[in-house]
Amino acid sequence: MSVSRSSHPTAHLIDGSLYVFRAWHSMPDEFHDVDGHPVNAVHGYTRFLCELLERERPTHLAVAFDASLTTSFRNAIYPLYKANRELPPPDLERQFVQCRAVTEALGIRVLIDHSFEADDLIGSTLWGLRANGFRSVIVSADKDFGQLLSAQDEQWDFARNQRWGPAGVFERLGVHPEQVADYLALCGDAVDNIPGVPGIGAKTAAALLAHFGSLDALLERVEEVPFLRLRGAASCAAKLREHGESARLYRRLTRIALDAPVESHADALLRRVAPDALEPLCEQLRFGPLTRNRLRALNSAETGR
């Protein structure tokens, strides 16, 4: 579902880690830098970034990366958070650093923090920009970002070229943006190792939030649940009584933070090309002529603005 563009200035906020991982899994292992290390993820990520810049010509943008799977504030709250994920192998860790270098060589703002995840950095940036009259395009397929969308914002799944706003969140999940964190707390999120309330799946979570509006209202009025026209309503109520406090804990994990340490003024997201950074990086990564020409053209176009 596409959304109509508005007259608000636009910032593109990119979930960099997602596209590095996608490139790592999709690009053949035939690219190596001058030291012989694999750079397949760097090549795939760079192609993605070039295509986005060529298609959109964004004036304000940033790319957010996760610094670690184990150091965010969520790990302190819930040590099992993302514990189901394997740590990136050294070859991929190295490529994450190189992808950030490519991003910076194109003059794009990099967002990274050891306490806050990429989602939080994007959310906090979006929140600050909104106060300054900007709309945001979140470039990611991650469902968590639905909670950030206002009427002017949109999310863009770049690989599928699908865009949606708040109505699209409801089409996908059955809940409104302001309910997404509650929804994920109830039904869980296997990707992040958040269990949710036992026995409550996606449809039940959406139905409960449609009736009660929020997780807090649901838990305060849990005695009403057995009387709902809901399959297994009595059992559902019992589970909510037993696991209500756990659900509140999970919401602290599923809610995107809006207070991460980011620069919220729009000028921080203007491209600032570093003219001497690109060529040595192209040599180190052994980019081919096509990729080098695309990168040079993008930097030249930005310098000539």
UniProtKB/TrEMBL annotation:
SUPFAM superfamilies, per database record: 5' to 3' exonuclease, C-terminal subdomain, PIN domain-like
CDD domains, A to Z: H3TH_53EXO, PIN_53EXO
All residue ranges annotated as the 5'-3' exonuclease domain in the record: 7-272
Domain of life: Bacteria
UniProt keyword Hydrolase, yes or no: yes
Gene3D superfamilies registered for this protein in UniProt: 5' to 3' exonuclease, C-terminal subdomain, 5'-nuclease
Keywords assigned: DNA-binding, Hydrolase, Nuclease
Pfam families given in the database record: 5_3_exonuc (PF01367), 5_3_exonuc_N (PF02739)
Protein name: Exodeoxyribonuclease IX
